[in-house]
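Input (TauD/TfdA family dioxygenase):
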Amino acid sequence: MMETRALSPSLGVAVSGVEDPFDDTLISRCLEALKWRGVLLVRGLDLDDAGQLAFSRKLGEVVALRGREIFTVSLDPSKNPMAEYLKGTFDWHLDGTSDEVPIKATTLTARHVAMVGGGTEFASTYAAYENLSEANRRRYDGLRVVHSFEAAQRLVKPDPSEKELAGWRSVPTREMSLVWERRDGRRSLVIGATADHIVGMDPAESRALLDELLEWSTQPRFCYTHDWAVGDLVMWDNTGILHRALPYDASSQRTLHRTTIVGEEAFA
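Output:
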């Protein structure tokens, strides 16, 4: 019998007792969890790549990354040629901030886990916004922020070569509302590692404000930390849930397989 429980007060749902991962009732609950709780965990679902793709396609259209619908998350360059860039995932971020329409959701299945560390931490910017004081809501409403791939990569490598810098800057920047009001009226904060600066604000003041908001949004009451076990499936709302990988040894065999679900609503 399928059961659900909250992962934390502010976000997340764990589903147990799953007999058929493609059952319409389960998919409906997944989509509801994605919207209202941000993160969904099914322990030990143990889907292979074909099963993960089939499950993902019931949630929405799957987009290929680097030509592959299944993207390997690993710091081993033999498994993932983009391993160096994945070091940026140790900082809080949203995926797809360089796109007009951000990624709707991501699914990850654990193939190998790290012996030490390697968990994934999530933070709800919906809950963070909802708990702001009225004075701070007025302070942030109307502000616009520029996101860039360069901003995220500089956190990993603050002194890049000219070639690296040119590569980072080949990814377009995007300006959007700091507070994103959705079509359904819900609001979230578009922040994280790619948030470069607030439009029209003094650079030092801009940086202080973005750092302040990130610190507010990632306090424990808005967070959930997932410790991976082989076979776990986790999916989350990429538009309002910040996430980051927790440190682990680069020589670890930690390997996750990812699918990416196409977004439905453009940034404001």
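Residues 47 and 231 are 7 Å apart (CA to CA).
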